[in-house]
Design a protein that fits this description.
The structure holds 2 protein chains of 2 kinds. Chain A is α/β, with parallel strands linked by helices. Chain A has 10 helices and 9 strands. The N terminus of chain A is likely disordered. Helix content of chain B is 80%, strand content 0%. The chains are: A alpha/beta, B mainly alpha. The interface between A and B is medium-sized, with 26 and 21 residues.
Chain lengths: 266, 309
């Protein structure tokens, strides 16, 4: 069974997944009948307007939220088991670094909690800080870094446990556009090098089209999937590809999907 | 001519220095307090003096009334320089081991202040951890904690001294317990707030690591709570000194600032009372300053070396 799940090419699978929140104004359907299969090594973007449940979906996959009904498997096991096995990394909307820890100590936080040896902690921190181009910043404190660098530290921290699966919840949403473009290029290279499965939440069309192998378009009230768009741009693309006709065509399709699912009457 | 210039330069130097620092506003406040104090001394002491003049048939002038009211023995309100003389007599002129030395008495009070502060801080943190981590305690303990502070300390202090005295516990311990009783409260309130203050995102982060409650406490909740703890410790420190002084009042304690206040009021020695009060105020200010100093050091470390306060 376990060898099956390792060999299986499916990273994430949901079947008729639904989630209702109980609020003071009655129940709110955050996710409605989500069926999604993500293959190993894919870069999947979830895109949609605020309130479409894209963040909630990732939180359910990461077992930070419990679904009301439906089945989910993450790496062939339940999300809770996947969380207990620490088989995924999670990057939040903000860097979420601890201000009293240095960059290196922030990166080793999960390793410390999981009881890795000191030397292994040091090696992994060096390796992944190197990967996000932050070598030499080990002993700095978060406030001494720019917003983009802080978010790269948090990516290194998520990678340091060497998960096969990476959840990223609008990781660059709070950054300025120039920094964001730069980090998009870096993230694409990183994905090319590590071949992790990435589930990426965004509300930026260019970001989604640039990064993804597939784009999942979602709509709000109730949160559901309205389109899944294949997006196989050349793997060695740079940010300039955004001018190309192929890029614009995919962007167009994403925008159409978002329009059809969104009611603009409010 | 040259001398004039030198003086003018000096005055301008002093002026600019005073304006640059806090010295000018602080001096202004001190002078205002002294002025009000001297006026108050005249107002409060003159009725007694006028009676005395009348009985002795002395012709009096206002200048004499003012002078006498500032230099009266057993005045209703002794003037600042009388209190200053009393402070000099009891602090500088006395050997600090003497029972007449205010330094000695302050030391006695401070020893129970410190013990009470440490006990109160420990109790306060323990209660806070219980309240944050155990739902039952959250519901059941907090009302008692709040109720405990509605009882006037002056009412409960003699009972604690008497009850503990009856079972043979006297001296430092009962006094410290009264300090503890006063100072655990702000610590509990502050630390509960602090332990609950990590951003939800950071708590989610720890959950994705499957961190244990103990790991979340050490790695996240405790460091986040420390600034709240220090804000409470400042209040607790001052309250602890109040508690120690109040504890010395009912027992007829032999030593301590509270006993000096008591004997001062027995014998109508208002100078003594004011000197002891000023000693208590200075000690309290110094202690709170020390806590503030530690606060700055610790909070700067917690902010990764960034200046925070």
């Amino acid at each position: 069974m376990s060898s099956d799940s390792v060999l299986s090419s499916v990273a994430v699978e949901t079947n008729q997944l639904s989630l209702q929140f109980q609020t003071n104004d009655g129940p709110v359907v955050a996710l409605d009948n989500i069926n999604l299969t993500i293959e190993q090594g894919e870069f999947i973007s979830l895109i949609g307007p605020s309130g479409c449940g894209k963040t909630t979906l990732v939180r359910v996959l990461a077992d930070l939220e419990k679904p009301t009904s439906g089945q989910i498997s993450v790496n062939g096991i339940s999300p809770e088991q996947a969380r207990l096995d620490q088989s995924y990394g999670y990057v939040f909307q903000a860097p979420a670094l601890l201000p009293w820890r240095t960059v290196k100590d922030n990166v080793v936080l999960p390793l410390e909690i999981m009881g890795y040896s000191k030397s292994r902690q040091r090696d992994l921190a060096a390796e992944y800080l190197n990967l996000v181009n932050l070598q030499g910043f080990e002993s700095k404190y978060p406030w001494q870094l720019s917003g983009g660098m802080q978010q790269r530290v948090s990516i290194a921290r998520a990678l340091s446990v060497e998960p096969q699966l990476l959840f990223m919840d609008e990781p660059f949403g709070a950054l300025d556009e120039i920094t964001r473009d730069h980090l998009n290029e870096q993230l694409l290279q990183l994905w090319g090098k590590t071949r992790k499965t990435v589930v990426f939440v965004t509300h930026s069309i260019p970001e989604a089209v640039f990064l993804s192998s597939r784009i999942v378009v979602m709509s709000p009230r109730p949160g559901r999937i309205i389109d899944i768009i294949d997006c196989n741009l050349p793997p060695d693309r740079s940010i300039d590809i955004r001018e190309s006709p192929q890029f614009l065509e995919i962007s167009h399709r994403v925008r159409d999907g978002l329009k059809s699912g969104h009611s603009y009457d409010d | 001519m040259a001398l004039n210039q030198v003086i003018a330069t000096m005055i301008s130097l002093i002026k600019s220095h005073l304006l640059k620092t806090d010295a000018l506003p602080v001096m202004t406040v001190i002078l205002a307090v002294l002025a009000i104090w001297y006026l108050g001394a005249v107002h409060l002491n003159s009725p007694q003096l006028q009676d005395r003049y009348k009985k002795q048939g002395i012709e009096w002038r206002y200048s004499q009334l003012v002078y006498d009211s500032w230099n009266m023995k057993r005045a209703v309100l002794p003037s600042p320089h009388q209190v200053a003389m009393e402070l000099k007599k009891t602090i500088i002129d006395q050997n600090i081991t003497s029972k007449r030395s205010l330094v000695y008495h302050t030391g006695v009070t401070l020893s129970s202040t410190f013990l009470g502060f440490i006990l109160g801080t420990a109790l306060g943190i323990a209660l806070a951890v219980g309240i944050v981590y155990v739902t039952t305690l959250d519901r059941s303990l907090m009302p008692w904690v709040i109720a405990s502070q509605t009882i006037p300390i002056l009412a409960i202090a003699p009972m604690i001294i008497v009850v503990l005295g009856a079972i043979g516990i006297t001296g430092l311990i009962p006094k410290s317990l009264i300090s503890m009783y006063l100072c655990f409260f702000p610590v509990t309130v502050g630390v509960v707030k602090g332990l609950r203050s990590p951003q939800p995102m950071l708590l989610d982060l720890m959950q994705t690591y499957n961190a244990s409650k103990l790991q979340v406490f050490w790695c996240l909740r405790l460091p986040v709570a420390v600034p709240y703890l220090f804000a409470s410790l400042k209040v607790a420190m001052a309250l602890s000194l109040v508690g120690a002084i109040v504890a010395e009042l009912p027992a007829g304690a032999q030593a301590g600032l509270g006993s000096r206040l008591l004997s001062g009021s027995y014998y109508g020695q208002t100078n003594l009372i004011w000197a002891a009060l000023i000693c208590a105020a200075l000690a309290s200010a110094l202690l709170v300053y020390l806590v503030g100093f530690c606060q700055r050091q610790v909070c700067r470390r917690l902010a990764g070396g960034q200046e925070v306060i």
